[in-house]
DNA sequence: TCCAAAGTGTGACCGTGGTAACATTTTATT
DNA sequence: AATAAAATGTTACCACGGTCACACTTTGGA
């Protein structure tokens, strides 16, 4: 992907809706950005690392994860093409990454230096409003995550997950979007604990499952046990 | 507190640093804001309530809390004079309060309608940048909270709390900033569980405590057990 | 000053879920 | 097709912390 290529991506991005291709080309000088490729599981930003850039995902999937003192993983959210990371850290009173950012697949990231972001904010109001929306939406993601993990039991996490996926996939047969290991990380629990609880729910007649799908059997019980 | 009074508060607020008193008076027309007083424990915004205003705390303390399905309380953060709430919801793609907002003491709130906020953003860049900082800082508060509650054990929560308070208060004798009941809510746990763990820590020689203070005895053990 | 209400200490009981260890299956690599 | 590596299933053990129940203390109003 050369200069022209990612320029095409940018010009179709909502943040840059107000910019003509010429204007974009004019603003984007080489010292203002870096395009980098990351392998799967490669760290993009360490926890407590200083933030100097806003990152735009050109391709691939990127996970933001919280690691506790014992190394347990809690996946906060997964971002993809067109999503933006680190915008909040450019404007906040503390500019260190509170969590680790790593590539979940081969990923190409456009690192936009903060000077560029500030300049773009100066130049264009639509960009700035768009950035406020991006940052504001991050607060909602984090709030939702707090909501999700402060539901105590694993069963409640699973039910919540199944409700959501069943609605998205419009089916009682939910195809798992990731491995069970990754699903456990999303809940911030042990893989074996997830496995155990799935078994219990099967015994209770709520679900059926195999390696790649979970079938919702008794949606009534599923609903009333929330 | 009449019009003049809160105008004085506004003009000394960093968000309005660029505004002359005249300019402020010009912008602030009655249909743009409401000043309201809330009693202790009175709800300011319910969860899932639609957000129409950005709220500026003129006096008192305001808690943002997450309630789970069984009514357990997790206090996310406590805000006070000069702090701003709801700014993120004005710019985000979803504008319902994800958590409950209530007065922790008698509180006076200035509700600024979103039209006014948008107008202020149009008028003044400093205001807009300031607002971005406010919203960005909210993401950090939420990230920190996720970090705090995903530390599994109650003992770790207590140690973390004591480290922080000991540093702030510059003393090994930590005066509790709130009741033990409220402290338990801050950790999102049962009050009796907090009480039990404090006892265990006293037995282990880590701390001493009474109703209003906790004395750090063995800071070494405190540090190594993190 | 009295009394109700709220906060606090304490204990018994037991379910949820972490830990560790191993077997089994699936996936990727040569 | 063969082998290593990763993911998954399964089990026994037990600690942490939720629940409930009650006594005690402090606080704030009447």
From TrEMBL, chains A, B:
Task: Identify a single GO molecular function assigned to this protein.
Answer: DNA binding
Q: Which UniProt keywords apply?
A: DNA-binding, Transcription, Transcription regulation
Signal sequence segment = none
The entry's cellular-component GO terms read: cytosol
Start and end residues of each Cyclic nucleotide-binding domain = 15-120
What range(s) does the HTH crp-type domain occupy? 152-220
Domain of life, per UniProt, equals Bacteria
SUPFAM superfamilies attached to this UniProt entry = cAMP-binding domain-like, Winged helix' DNA-binding domain
The UniProt transmembrane annotation reads none
A Pfam family: cNMP_binding
Q: Which PANTHER family match?
A: CRP FAMILY TRANSCRIPTIONAL REGULATORY PROTEIN, CYCLIC AMP-BINDING REGULATORY PROTEIN
Question: What protein is this chain from?
Answer: cAMP-activated global transcriptional regulator CRP
Tell me which species this is from: Acetobacterium wieringae
Annotated gene: crp_3
């Amino acid at each position: 992907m050369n200069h022209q290529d990612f320029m095409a991506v940018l010009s179709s991005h909502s943040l840059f809706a107000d910019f003509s291709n010429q204007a974009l080309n004019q603003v984007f000088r080489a010292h203002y950005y870096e395009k980098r490729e990351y392998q799967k599981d490669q760290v993009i930003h360490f926890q407590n690392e200083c933030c100097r850039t806003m990152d735009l995902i050109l391709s691939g999937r990127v996970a933001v994860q919280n690691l506790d003192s014992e190394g347990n993983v809690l996946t906060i959210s997964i971002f993809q093409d067109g999503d933006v990371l680190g915008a909040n850290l450019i404007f906040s009173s503390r500019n260190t990454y509170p969590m680790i950012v790593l590539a979940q697949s081969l990923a190409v990231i456009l690192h936009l230096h903060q000077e560029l972001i500030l300049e773009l904010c100066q130049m264009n109001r639509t960009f700035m409003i768009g950035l406020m929306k991006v940052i504001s939406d991050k607060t909602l993601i984090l709030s939702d995550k707090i909501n999700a993990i402060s539901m105590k039991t694993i069963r409640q996490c699973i039910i919540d997950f199944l409700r959501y996926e069943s609605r998205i996939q419009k089916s009682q047969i939910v195809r798992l979007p990731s491995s069970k290991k990754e699903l456990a990380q999303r809940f911030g629990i042990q893989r074996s604990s997830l496995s155990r609880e799935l078994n219990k729910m099967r015994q209770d007649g709520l679900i059926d499952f195999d390696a790649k799908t979970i079938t919702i059997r008794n949606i009534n019980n599923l609903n009333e046990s929330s």
